[in-house]
Amino acid sequence: MKDNIKIFGFSKNKRTYYKLKFSQIEETEISSVSGKSVFDFLWIDGSDFETIFTKILSSIAAGGVGEAIQAAAPFVDKNSYLTVYIAAFIEYLAEGTDEALAEFTAFMGSDFAAPQKDSAHYMMNFINAMTASIEQKKAEIKFYINDIMKDKNGSLNQRFVNCGKESKLFDFQFDSHFDFENDVIIYPLETMDDVIRFDIMQMLANKIKFKPCKCCGHYFVPGGRTNSEYCDRIMPGETRPCNEFGALKTFDITHKNDDIHKAYITAYRRMDSRQRAKLITKDEFKQFGKIARAERKKCYNGEITLEQFKTWLDDFR
Question: Which of 35, 130, 230, 253 has the highest CB neighbour number within 10 Å of its CB?
Fold first, then answer.
């Protein structure tokens, strides 16, 4: 095994773990449900990566590694891959040598091309190159996963393995050794490609289910109930995650020409706004929802008219 390996992967209880041993930061262990990080990584916008890396660059210039670590702190629990990128970037910035640059370039992979060191705006161009590399990896993962999910020939595992012939991100051949002290198999990971493909391998080995969210359309690993239809991510332009409003949005689309539903949903949103403004309690809001659904059912069954239902809803203004 090479002496300069700084990332070690292992799996336990259907979770993927990464042990980070970078010299400039305290040894860190991060984890998530196997496969979850890859789908959350695909969802992170490129401009967010650029903003985070720029903050780290400014912080290390102003106050060194300690300040850079503080600047990165709010982001390190967002996604395992993002944490690895941050740790590697801080390591490179702190050391700043040609050897460190060579190591960082190797870590980023073949889709990363560092700008000339004597070029104008070198570090901003460097961050742009990092972001471009990340976007390329995301595009590659999306392309092959979409292809895999469309192809129904063979098992899911076999379809992923077949992609290893075309993309390193799906080549699941690794060196490893057994850690007797912790009773796990340890995988030395040299590059970001290794980090990603190790997680995908563990997702398949642990038979982790993933599916497209019925609200935003992005793949996700259901948390808790495996029959969840909506992810827990917040789409651009929204204030709540898909799993809070997705079912309601889907129901709205299904019932867009339904006058009974329109009356109900208008009143529901009005009461929700009152609850958020603390004009009514959560219990009062829940009670309203329970009774309103019962009255809506009566209207669908013809026991009351639409006008009677609307009148009843108006009494809750």
Answer: 35
